[in-house]
Write a structure and sequence with these properties.
Radius of gyration: 46 Å
Strand content: 35-45%
Number of strands: 32
Structural class: mainly beta
Shape: rod-shaped
Distance between the termini: 140 Å
Strand order of the largest sheet: 24-23-27-20-29-30
Number of domains: 3
Oligomer: single chain
Length: about 425
């Protein structure tokens, strides 16, 4: 009987051990692994490979991670062993296009998937490019120089923060187009390079860049000559060159800052004229006029009416800063040999780089081989002196206005 009881107890103990073991096996089989959602906020425009974050689980067990879906496609990559998310395509991290990036991450051993949300912060992407331009000197006010390029969010506004020399250029606040504001400053000899600091701004900030304008040194006088251009090219600096009426008018009407001295065009255009015959004497003459050569200017062209004279030599211009009947000094070289019969003769001075410091009266000296004309119906007068002299008669001859004219400019354009 005791033996039967012993076997019975042993059987019950065995059954209990088997049941406990099976209970532990059931617990292992039914244990679950969960993935945690990930939400982060970063600035737009990251770099490729930049770490976004890591998908976490509630288990220390090694997992195999993968991305099962993402919007936009190709934006993210994941480390299959760690769950670390990185930037795959940085161009897709653009706030204006994709302010929120989403993805779904799975793990082979996990019961769920993780939702990934990446919120992008809008960064001020304002950028401005520098501008370098080359243009010919002596442009016209309003001429276009170039356009400053800029990119950024919202409405862009352009302005000039500083410029050298001041007041040279202006800018369109909407388009960034640069134009000539003061053409007199676009002088190669004075300002071969014009520069400015350009600012562009939007609601989030501003950026600056440099605009550099290189001036080309141009002989504008040569460009205005046609018939006489070859003679002009062959001449030496400081020489007078015979030109045509059309070329003289081109210079007068197309160069900047031109002043007519001695006579106006109206005075010069009078059809009433008389002959001045020096009786084989040389004469210095100056009109009694208020049409002076301006201070700090350059005398560049001259014309006068001549009568029945051939192979005239020795004619030269004179200037006086003190009075229109005294203090005259020779200006430059004599005019070249020329001829004419009751007509105008025209001259241009090549490369005159010597400015006239003070406002001056313009006169000229006629050699004994020249006969010139004057208007005897005018109320104006003219001063005379014999021969080549600095001081003329004290009182002018009334009703005489000699037909001669000089062109000058305050701006070097050659």
């Amino acid at each position: 009987m005791k033996k039967i009881f012993k076997y019975t107890n042993l059987l019950l103990l065995t059954l209990l051990l088997i049941n406990y073991s099976c209970s532990n096996d059931d617990e292992t089989i039914t244990s679950v692994i969960s993935l945690q959602d990930l939400e982060v906020t970063i600035g737009e425009n990251p770099t490729s490979g930049q770490v976004i974050g890591t998908v976490q689980s509630d288990s220390n067990t090694s997992l195999t991670f993968s991305i099962t879906a993402q919007t936009p496609t190709g934006v993210l990559s994941i480390d299959s062993n760690t769950g670390q998310l990185t930037v795959a395509d940085a161009t897709l991290f653009d706030f204006e296009t994709n302010p929120v990036i989403t993805a779904t991450v799975a793990a082979d051993e996990a019961q769920n998937t993780a939702s990934v949300i990446i919120n992008l912060n809008n960064i001020n992407e304002l950028a401005i490019q520098g501008l370098t331009a080359s243009i010919d000197e002596n442009p016209i006010n309003g001429d276009t120089i170039g356009t400053v390029q800029a990119t950024g969010d919202g409405v862009l506004s352009f302005s000039i923060a500083s410029q050298t020399p001041a007041g040279a250029i202006s800018i369109d606040s909407n388009s960034g187009e640069l134009t000539v504001m003061d053409a007199t400053l676009f002088d190669y000899e004075t300002n071969p390079i014009i520069s400015a600091t350009i600012s562009v701004s939007n609601s989030e900030g501003n950026e600056n860049s440099i605009a550099t304008i290189n001036l080309n040194d141009i002989d504008n006088i040569k460009e205005l000559l046609s018939t006489s251009q070859a003679d002009y090219n062959a001449a030496s600096s400081g020489d007078w060159v015979i030109i045509t009426e059309t070329e003289y008018n081109n210079i007068a009407n197309n160069l900047a800052a031109i002043t007519r001295s001695a006579t106006t065009e109206t005075e010069y255009g009078s059809t009433i004229s008389s002959v001045i015959n020096s009786n084989n004497n040389s004469i210095t003459v100056a009109n009694s006029t208020t049409n002076l050569v301006p201070a700090n200017s350059y005398l560049i062209a001259f014309k006068y009416k001549i009568w029945n004279s051939a192979n005239v030599t020795g004619v030269k211009l004179k200037l006086s800063s003190s009075a229109n009947n005294s203090g005259f000094m020779d200006f430059g070289n004599p005019l070249p040999t020329h001829s004419g019969n009751n007509e105008d003769v025209f001259f241009v001075l090549k490369n005159n780089n010597t400015s006239i410091n003070a406002e001056s009266y313009l006169g000229f000296f006629q050699s004994n081989s020249s006969i010139f004309l004057y208007d005897d119906a005018t109320t104006s007068g003219a001063y005379w002196g014999i021969p080549d002299t600095s001081n003329l008669n004290a009182s002018p001859y009334t009703n005489r206005n000699v037909f001669y004219q000089g062109l000058s400019t305050t701006q070097v354009q050659w």
